[in-house]
Amino acid sequence: MVAKTGVTFDDERLKFQNDQDNDCAVNTIVSNKGGNPLIVDVVDSGEFLIDYNEINSVAGLSTVNVLTYTVPVGKVLFLKKVLFFGQNIGVYSVDIDSNIVAKLETYYTKYNDGFDFKDMPINSGSILKLIVSNKTNSIADFNATIIGRLEYD
Predict the structure, then answer these.
(1) Which fold has domain 47-152?
(2) What does the DSSP assignment read for the chain?
(3) What is the pTM of this model?
(4) SS3 99
(5) Which residues on neighbouring strands pair with residue 129, listed in sequence order?
(6) What tens digit of pLDDT does each residue of 52-100 get?
(7) What is the end-to-end Cα distance of the chain in Å, rounded?
(8) What value does the CA radius of gyration of the chain take, rounded to a whole number of Å?
(9) Domain boundaries, the chain
């Protein structure tokens, strides 16, 4: 394929098109080695957030905050996911400003899971917590990761 500039590309995943002003534009398809297209999450602005914490030796039949995050003043958190893992059966809750917004339970065959919030906006100053209730009589370790994007409000 020949671009307007005269450069030739053999890769069919890189394509050139002329826009309405007859200027050359590039369209790129991102794919794996097998040629299957991959979904690319494009965001316009903000900073990527990954916040991790772990709590060790949580007593059996007790409830603890595994992770607490406060959205900085002047920013909005677009929450993508909250991921978690525990060594025992547990009930996990996502709490925003003292309101439970999601809850999951793990069992013997699956100790890790997560919540998908698909860019749910959380306002400046709000407090996000992942709370776990250890549902067995033995001690266990638990961890959590918040994934999102911060933007100025």
Answers:
(1) Jelly Rolls (2.60.120)
(2) -B-TTS-B---TTEEEEE-TTS-EEEEE--B-TT--B-------S-EEEEEEEEEEEEPTT-EEEEEEEEPPTTEEEEEEEEEEEESS-EEEEEEETTEEEEEEE-BTTB-EEEEEEEEEEE-TT-EEEEEEEE-SSS-EEEEEEEEEEEEE-
(3) 0.71
(4) strand
(5) 68, 95
(6) 999 999 999 999 999 999 999 999 999 999 999 999 999 999 999 999 9
(7) 44
(8) 22
(9) 1-40, 47-152
